[in-house]
């Protein structure tokens, strides 16, 4: 049996995008990916991220916001930055860890009515789901 690819999804607050990516990876790719998420300046898991993921059948309510420094001892195969800030401030990981950037809009910054904000969260949730479906192959082939 081959080992799972260890993937860290990294963003700033570890409240929305990286939490959704971790949830999708566990739900869709748990057989081939060992998924983690963290932030460079973690806050709390956004309740709307929990809500829209639950709508899609993925429960992330037990996940917590973590600082990337908590995971520096983990030997990741790939670190995927999900926002420009995380890309710019990503720590150096030991060994041959591949760092890949895939930016997504920040749903926490959505404005408008409750329905408009939820629509923004759902769009980003679905974009992240579609990206996670391509893992780990899509990020292991890049230079």
Automatic annotation (TrEMBL):
GO terms for biological process: response to arsenic-containing substance. Residues 5-138 form the Phosphotyrosine protein phosphatase I domain. InterPro entries: Ptyr_pPase (IPR023485), Ptyr_pPase_sf (IPR036196). CDD domains: LMWP_ArsC (cd16345). The keyword GTP-binding does not apply. Keywords: Arsenical resistance. This is Protein tyrosine phosphatase. It comes from Thermovirga lienii (strain ATCC BAA-1197 / DSM 17291 / Cas60314).
